[in-house]
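Can't attach files on this board, so I'm pasting raw text. These are the components:
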Amino acid sequence: MMNLTLKIWRQKNASDKGQIVDYPLSGVSPDMSFLEMLDVLNQELIEKGEQPVAFDHDCREGICGTCSLYINGRAHGPETKITACQLHMRSFKDGDTIYIEPWRAEAFPVVKDLIVDRTSFDRIQQAGGFISVNTSGNTQDANAIPIEKENADKAFDAATCIGCGACVASCKNSSAMLFVSAKVSQFALLPQGQVEATDRVLNMVKQMDEEGFGNCTNTGACEVECPKGISLENIARMNREYLSASLKG
Amino acid sequence: MSILDSKIPKGPLADKWTKHKNEINLVNPANKRLIDVIIVGTGLAGGSSAATLAELGYNVKAFCFQDSPRRAHSIAAQGGINAAKNYQGDGDSTYRLFYDTVKGGDYRSREANVHRLAEVSTNIIDQCVAQGVPFAREYGGLLDNRSFGGVLVSRTFYAKGQTGQQLLLGAYAAMNRQIGRGKIKMYTRHEMLDVVIVDGKARGIIARNLVTGEIERHSAHAVVLGTGGYGNAFYLSTYAMGSNVTAAWKAHKRGAFFANPCYTQIHPTCIPVSGDHQSKLTLMSESLRNDGRIWVPKHKKDVDAIRNGSLKPTDLAEADRDYYLERRYPAFGNLVPRDVASRAAKERCDAGYGVNKTGEAVYLDFASAIERYGKEQAYVKGLNVDDTKLVTDLGKKVVENKYGNLFQMYEKIVDQNPYETPMMIYPAVHYTMGGLWVDYNLMTTVPGLYAIGEANFSDHGANRLGASALMQGLADGYFVLPYTIGDYLAHDIRTGTIPTDTKEFDEAEENVRAGINKFINNEGTKSVDHFHKRLGKIMWNKCGMARNEKDLKEAISEIAQLREEFYKDVFVPGTENEYNEELAKAGRVADFLELGELFAKDALEREESAGGHFRDEYQTEGGEALRRPEFQYVSAWEYKGKPSEAIHHKEELKYENIEVKERSYK
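---
Top answer:
Structure tokens for the assembled complex are below.
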């Protein structure tokens, strides 16, 4: 069992200034997940009649992209290629001090404590992150267009993005390029996505800029912290798509 | 005569759906613009129906409690989606998918609904590929398939271990296109807390904005619930933390009958519970049973040695292992359906053969798959097939390509390497086949109120086959509801916008506010989780994998008592006018505490074993589920103020195209 000191960002709502508050926590088992450790803290706070720490979480198996904790200065904490909900306390030692903060970015305003508003990501997708095909029972047969396995696999790799925002939180410029490029790449690599490729990349990038995300300066921090290992190659691909779309457009 | 009218169209089974589509009312495109539809939930069913209805021209308002529609729990589905494409040429057909699903459901689902599901399954794959969903492909560029439990063909389409995510992102993208066009108004971080009934029809909802706490009124000509299942009544499950029964339960309290609540799927391959702090359980995909072999030691002495750490499972000789699924079910082996595999694991663990400290775990072993694949690779590459180390290394690479992300997930949680030592697994609550009763049009017993996907009861009977949940969610949302809802809405083209300043909305809003105020002002001492965990223990111990009359009667009274205690002693910190997760949880647990009692009541009434519902009193000599012909009906419960007073209605199930026989996987 471990004893920890937690330094947690508390902020009542979007307009509150917010501050770090210290919480000692004892009896932490190495088999607990990081979020279960926060559950234990919250139960203690509730029992004392205090407000629990608000944090976003849902599936707790690393796929919904809801959890969004900045732990000891790293998005999703010290391990690589996992989300905060998959992080276990065995990655920490007895006596550790752990800083827990929300994602920090202008385009992700704090809702409360560790919860941020990521609807800017949704709006970027609404600007063009789709293929315009209506639902009907008459779409052509799924095997009518063979797709080269290499491209299909790369499209899949890009599509594994869970939209958590760790890339933005890790970037010194708060750039959303990795997120946007993953979606642009998925469709650019598939024949179905070609038809609208020009408008898609122009509209998504325009929306990204309007939301207040910063520019990409190729530091690569996003790739390092991405829980799904989305590759920087996607950013290069999006830049090519954007350039050729701009020339056409 | 039952008051339940399933509205199954007349005529031969294979023609019913086509004929029905040709005969139902349509709404012309100009009139669709005059009609509003509310959709609650944005998973596969809710998301796909929202997009499709908006494409058709209806004004859609969609609601989800998550911060984005993309995060609904459909996203966590791993293994795949079934479709009767027969791309493998292995004898698959619409009829076989239909047959497998009815048999897999232990002859407790509706023939006509299941046949329709099998018919539209192929459209789903076409639609998803057109949307850019990156399914796994073979080197020739065509789509790949794999096998799931309870069937003898390969009809499962997949995207590694993330099929649910890719399908949901497809539906989310289709929604985004309509949100961008203004045809869907999206309300995220909103929770539906009541349905509003006007003149006997569902005409709106009361929702709470989870960020500001504001109570909002929303009206529409029809309300659709795609709000998922209620497995979190068990506290520990593979559901997301926020998954809840509240929307469905509020609908039940407003007149929608709740069908077969006791039909719950307990999935055989989940990571076992590690301690009291546990908040959720993690599934290991059924696809692993394509290659993993399930076993426990044959002898008790070896069990003891393994538990105290003096014997490693890898050191136990083949002859001393009991591959109990292969032993009991030689035809299907490790790929028996989920209910059968789960009960078999429980049987071995109850008999004292569980392999972890709690005695509740069995092994899922990949050693022979690694050896088999390794030898194949060595042979292909012209290397020495007798070099054990080489073969093992080659085999591990193959297994990593197939299941790498699942193995990584396991290692992160358990801190053991499943390439070196067998995985430990145990069954966990995963899905609920029961749900709101719906007719063939997916309408509940409340006119204008629909239930789709896991929220309804209709297609899986008493047990769902693997890779069929995604199929049903998308079938309902893309291909069924958009047609059937028009039949109802055709009568509303002249109705005009439904006003929200009426007494019905007043009453519903007051009802919601009263519930919230009660929690906020309650001077209790215990947290919401305290009660939720206690409910979960009762559900798991007395309404879990095996049930009996005595336990169920105890569960009914214990849950009723717990509910009373909950209302007296629950403490909810904070206020109603802010982001307050404890308040949201309190409302959800309150509904689970009512549903749990109805669940036990339903299980008690069903004096037979069928699929996921196993009664100790009704089993064959070999310990298999004993179905009884006199229970060949759907139980639909009508709310009358309390779960204990719910009225039982029956919908008789007729099998005209399938012979009902013993469900054997031997």
